[in-house]
Amino acid sequence: MSLEGHGTDATSSEIKTTLSYTADASKLHVEGMSKSYPDIEEDVTGNLGSSGLVLSGGLLGFVFSRNLATLSTGVLFGGALLALSTFSLKIWRQGKSSLPFILGQAALSAALLWKNFQSYSLTKKVFPTGFYAAISAAMLCFYSYVLISGGNPPPKKLKSSPSFAS
Q1: Quick one: which H or E segment has residue 164?
Q2: CA 69, CA 66: separation in Å to the nearest integer?
Q3: Residue range 47-95, pLDDT digits in tens
Q4: Helix intervals (H) in 14-163
Q5: 123 vs 120, 129, 130, CA distance in Å?
Q6: Is 8 helix (H, G, I), strand (E, B) or coil?
Q7: Which of 111, 106, 113 is nearest to 130 (CA)?
Q8: Which residues, listed in sequence order, are joined to residue 21 by a DSSP beta bridge?
Q9: What contacts 149, CB < 8 A, 6 or more positions away?
């Protein structure tokens, strides 16, 4: 009976390793250690979701309250976050750094967090100000993580294999 096998155990934010193991513990072999970075598609999905939430919240808030401040805040912050995440993806696909766009999104999330936290402190209403403050705090933490981990590296170019004439 043989206890030989191969296994991979890592998440997208950890160092990925491949382990080969046998019944003898002295023959442990570790292959291909490489650090992975945050995935830009995950960034954009989160960015589009949060910016869409802010934008649609501003529009719905205006429909129910007829308050222009709600509409302008939702459209300005949500639209700006949406534009920055779209430009970030476009620039990243060209192989350039999207750091300025990430910093812009972090700044807008911090401003939105500050505004909604102040409103929540005054009104103690969990929805919508407390909810938006929590979403903004989560996105600010996410942008901080992206910046601390080194940002989003440019996409890897596929190398064409050399063809040999026979």
Answers
A1: none
A2: 9
A3: 788 888 999 999 998 999 998 988 998 999 999 999 998 898 888 888 8
A4: 40-65, 68-93, 99-123, 131-148
A5: 5, 9, 10
A6: strand
A7: 113
A8: 5
A9: 13, 37, 38
Paired tokens of 59: 């529009």
Query: Taking the domains of the chain in order of start, what are their residue ranges?
Result: 5-35, 40-148
Burial 32-53 (b: 16+ CB within 10 A, else e): eeeeeebebeebbebbeebbeb
DSSP label at residue 150: T
What one-character DSSP code corresponds to residue 14?
S
- Tokens matching residue 42: 């995950």
3-state class (DSSP) for residue 163: coil
Residues 77 and 54: their CA atoms lie apart, in Å, by 7
The token duo for 125 is: 């209403």
- Paired with 30 in beta bridges are 19
**Residue showing tokens 């302008």:** 72
pLDDT tens figures, 138-154: 999 999 988 888 877 76
Residue type, 119: S
